[in-house]
Recover the amino acids of this structure.
């Protein structure tokens, strides 16, 4: 039993060492949708009783970089129309839809490797409100002129303390990311609004223009 356990542990360590290095890895191509689609599903009404889907509500175009369905539900819960588009969709195609806003989703891999997404976001800057989470937040930081880095220890789990620098409020939040926007990089006039209290990494940005 002891010998089998030791061999198993060794094999697992070797397996981890042989795994793909996330630095420079564009994994978005492997997970994005193939075609655009409308999203209309909402959350269970017991959780959002005061919200209803409005088929004529403001249109949000959501870039699928590896998006989670529950994030889409949270958008429709608030009366928004949602059009999900593949990661390669050009900014010209998005602007032609005349959206009220553009959402950049979560997703896997190194944000700096998704060069086409960064270029498209640059094409959208200043033309339409943009918001993003996780990988989408990092790609937005890169589009603004900032830099990202692979963290030595990623944020994993549901107990990450994040401080809102605008209000002083601390929220315990769920994370699953291994890259972060570098705080002292050039962010094109954007301000850092949120930081992680464990390691002081950037958790939120805001640009008023």
């Amino acid at each position: 039993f002891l010998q089998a356990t030791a061999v198993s542990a060794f094999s697992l360590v070797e397996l981890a060492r042989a795994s793909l290095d996330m630095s420079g890895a564009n994994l978005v191509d492997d997970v994005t949708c193939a075609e655009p689609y409308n999203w209309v599903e909402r959350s269970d009404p017991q959780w959002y009783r005061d919200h209803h889907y409005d088929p004529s509500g403001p249109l949000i175009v959501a870039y699928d970089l590896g998006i989670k369905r529950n994030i889409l539900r949270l958008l429709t819960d608030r009366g928004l129309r949602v059009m999900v588009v593949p990661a390669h969709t050009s900014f010209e195609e998005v602007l032609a839809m005349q959206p009220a806003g553009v959402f950049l989703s979560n997703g896997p891999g190194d944000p700096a490797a998704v060069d086409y997404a960064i270029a498209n976001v640059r094409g959208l800057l200043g033309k339409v409100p943009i918001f993003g989470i996780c990988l989408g937040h990092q790609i937005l930081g890169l589009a603004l002129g900032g830099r990202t880095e692979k963290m030595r220890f990623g944020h994993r789990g549901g107990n990450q303390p994040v401080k809102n620098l605008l209000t002083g409020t601390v929220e315990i939040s769920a994370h699953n990311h291994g890259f972060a926007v570098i705080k002292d990089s050039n962010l094109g006039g954007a301000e850092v609004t949120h930081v992680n209290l464990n390691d002081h990494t950037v958790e939120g940005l805001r640009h008023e223009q």
